[in-house]
Write a structure and sequence with these properties.
Largest sheet: 7 strands, parallel
CATH topology: TIM Barrel
Number of domains: 1
CATH architecture: Alpha-Beta Barrel
Order of helices and strands: HEEHEHEEEHEEEH
Strand order of the largest sheet: 1-2-3-4-5-6-7
CATH class: Alpha Beta
Shape: globular
Strand content: 15-25%
């Protein structure tokens, strides 16, 4: 999210729990300054890609983030150091790219270091493909860390979300398929979708 009025409108949708703000200059959704309206009713998520930890801490303070999403190649050592900096005041999500069964194994080295995983469709970059991976792969995830799913979830996927079952399934990330343009969400489409859920 980036546009103040759009943020305010999505903030009014009860079923939306978190709202993300991307800090990655190569992203068309990059946030360069504090919007004049920030969500009052949602947890605020700062999304970073291989960012310097001191910059993450600075932005966490400026934007009052509740959650940090690491969407790059951040190592377990990086996550451990970041955890020590933020203590338990801020939750940490680590994105894991998925295309095949073996990719699930990458979660193991982050156990006890993060609070959530975000399973994303594997791409050459850092997400944003708008394509879905095979969610059946997640049946092989046996960790005790909750996860979210992202990657190409659209308005026609309500039944798929409803039918997906896993004890650690914590939610979904709605992005490009619910946008009018980058960082501008289609509020009506989101409302209709969550009503279906």
């Amino acid at each position: 999210m980036r546009e103040p009025e759009n943020i305010r409108n999505v903030d009014g949708i009860n079923e939306v729990n978190w709202m993300g703000f991307i800090f990655f200059p190569k992203s068309s959704r990059n946030v360069s300054s504090l919007p004049s309206y920030m969500p009052q009713n949602k947890k605020r998520v700062g999304v970073f890609v291989n960012e310097d930890k001191t910059e993450i801490i600075r932005l966490c303070q400026e934007f009052a983030f509740d959650i940090i999403q690491l969407h790059g190649d951040e190592s377990p050592e990086y996550c451990k150091e970041l955890r020590e900096l933020v203590k338990n005041d801020v939750k940490i999500i680590k994105m894991i790219q998925i295309s095949e069964l073996a990719d699930i194994k990458h979660t193991e080295k982050y156990y006890d270091l993060v609070d959530y995983f975000l399973f994303e469709t594997k791409t050459k970059g850092y997400g944003g493909s708008g394509k879905q991976f095979d969610w059946d792969i997640l049946n092989e995830y046996n960790g005790n860390i909750p996860f979210l799913i992202t990657g190409g979830i659209g308005p026609d996927d309500a039944d798929k979300v409803i039918s997906f079952k896993h004890p650690q399934f914590a939610g979904i990330d709605l992005n490009s398929k619910f946008e009018v343009s980058p960082a501008l969400k289609d509020v009506e489409a989101i409302m209709n979708f969550v009503k279906q859920l």
